[in-house]
Write the structure tokens for this entry.
Amino acid sequence: MGDLMSKIYRWILKENPNLQLTQEIQREYGLHKIIADILSSKLNAQEVKNFLNPDLKDLYSPYLLRGIKEAKELIQQHIALKDLITIYGDYDVDGITATSVLYLTLKKLGAKVDYYIPERLVEGYGISEEAIDKIAQRGTKLIISVDCGITSVKEVEKAQFLGIDVIITDHHSIPKEIPQADVVINPHLPDIEYPFCDLAGVGVAFKLSQALIGEEAYELLDIVSIGTIADIVPLLGENRIIVKEGLKRLNETRNIGLKALIKASGLQNIEIDEYHVGFILAPRLNAAGRLRSAEAAVRLLISQDEKEVKEIAEYLNQENLNRQQIENQILQEAIQKIKETVDLNKEKVIVLWDKNWHPGVIGIVASRITERFHRPSILISLGEGEGKGSGRSIEGFNLYKALEYCKDYLIKYGGHEMAAGINIEKNNLEIFKTKINEYADTVLSDLDLIPSLRIDAKVKNEKIDIEIAKQVQRFKPFGSNNPRPNFLFEGLTVTKVFDLNGGKYKKIIAQKDKFVYELMLFDVSDKGNDVKIGDIIDVVGSIEINNWNGIESVMINVKDLRIKLPLFSYYKNLSKIMVEYQPEKKEIDKKVDYIIDQRGINNKWEYVLKLFKREGKTVVIVNTVVELKSLLRYLRKEKFLDFSLCNGDCEKENGILFFPNSLKPLKYYDDIIIYDIPFKKEIFYRILSHSQGKRIHLVFKEADIYYNLKSFDEIFPQRKDFIKLYKFIEEGNNILFKDHLHPQLNLNPIKFSFCIKAMKEIGLINVKERDNIFMLSKNSVSQKVNIEQTQIMQQIFSAKKEFIEFAKFIVSQKI
């Protein structure tokens, strides 16, 4: 029935900054290079300026939005005639706030105004003809829709037939046919000249408010920001200005309803940001429309009655608790159904139904199912003869097109790429599930079902301190199209591990070079529980500020973590040298002036220490892990610490160069000690060629060959390794990480990579690669195969043979 495993991420590193722009940003705004790199990789110079300094003066004139001028004139006419104006809103937070903003605006102008919010469970989304009849009976002469109406062709015709003027304000996608309303305002209309098309429904209402009351509309930005955040529109451009300014006003709001909601939510005396709005305030406003009528939420935002708003705020708080209980119950039932009825190895879309599921909550649960399993999901609440469903999708799967493919089995459907709703007859449930998965098989690969974790920057030699953490805060407000940046930290050594809050959270103290980091895992999974002191880990996380008793410190909020093989870089470089190394022939024929032959010396340690203590600059070239550790132990025992350990440029006059990437540092030294045997004869002669005018000390001996071969065994696969990996795949484990240890497999990642190449070459397995993962599946092979005859294994055998021949020669022959 599928594996309910902890989430696996593809790590996607975005490293394409505009270096010239990076330097300009550093100079202009005083930002650290790593922060400037992130900005230059996604914005141009003008966009950076607007992004870092969002300002109300940069809002576009509302009159650039087609229909605003005509809507303003029509509204003014009806106000002058003292006609009743009805605002027709939606029942979500965007619709609730849009209704409230326009209501308060029209009240400022002395209009006779009311509003109408359809009930989700009875009337459904959008304008209905039944609602038009009710509104007409009130004596309404003008309807202004907010956050809906762009598809309401027949409903607008009916309103006009009844003598009602109609202004549509909406932000949803434009259908093939739009209503013939008196005015239609939508930033997505074709051939529109408005510079920013991603306004929320409340954003469009705000532009109309701007036209009607000018800068007085800014007083409503606290409400506008809530709807903008809740509707998950891109927090860039005008939306960024709206939310940034709106949050300032929200923290000092004079709206008594918002004050009451903030108090009821426990947010008084807290600086409210986009998180508090998105996860605490907005769900309470939404709860009313999900379970009953959203009218109470509008009343909260427009009322001037202290007693009323207090009662409504407490009511919304309770409704939110009810919603959470219902949501959690449905979520647990849905997960149980997945365990029992869904084969996640075959079904790429999760389709579930139940007669007891509340139709107002299934959309939220679908979001949580999609987030948890990273695949499209549709949850359906069954009624008497039909079901109402709500779906959520993932990147790369257009849910609306999928429903279009299945339209013969649906009563009706609607939505967009990432979210949609359906009505379906009960007897079509199974065939619908089959058909939508049939469509998914044509557009989604197995790799698409692995969630991606986008990395904005790799931390290299930077110290991530409180100053950089504060510079990250300048990216706020975070949200859609502007998520909190993720950073990659490689090669951290775990020094301490703490379980917090009964094991729900985990704190890890980790170190790299001189830098110490506090890592917090708020979503503790199997990988978090594997971490122990001494592990080398790679971490992806966001940089945040922890404030404890007034003391600020840097905290890394871990999104994903992988345990790394100790000395991974060493083994990776060794594999490249043995299999891919190409000698530079022009360098290996040069002669060396002075060789001091100490091959076979009994105590290499003492010899090194003697040279270290002598006048002059001495470097020791060490190639194997065992030899390095034994030398370091000896020097510590002798309490001699006056040296640098490096694989590039060493900082001190005494250096231990461990399996160096470059031989250029040799030019700095007078004495060069070749401590053990290099893995390639070409490297040995390259060392000599870089050492003209130097004293070369040879101190290796025949016994050292054993340690070289031990290093080979760490990465070169044997028959037992192939058997282990093949059985692992047979057991259904098909996703493995590049460059990281898999706790169940416990195989050196370099050896694992060699195994994969050989098994793929001979046809035993299929391999798909993307970012930091391999996806593996086994093939049925009819005839017996000899894996040792593969090209990669022949390269390995050849490299080992060449080394042994060279090593035997170099320890015994005169040089």
The CA atoms of residues 505 and 522 lie 5 Å apart. The longest helix spans residues 306-341. The radius of gyration is 34 Å.
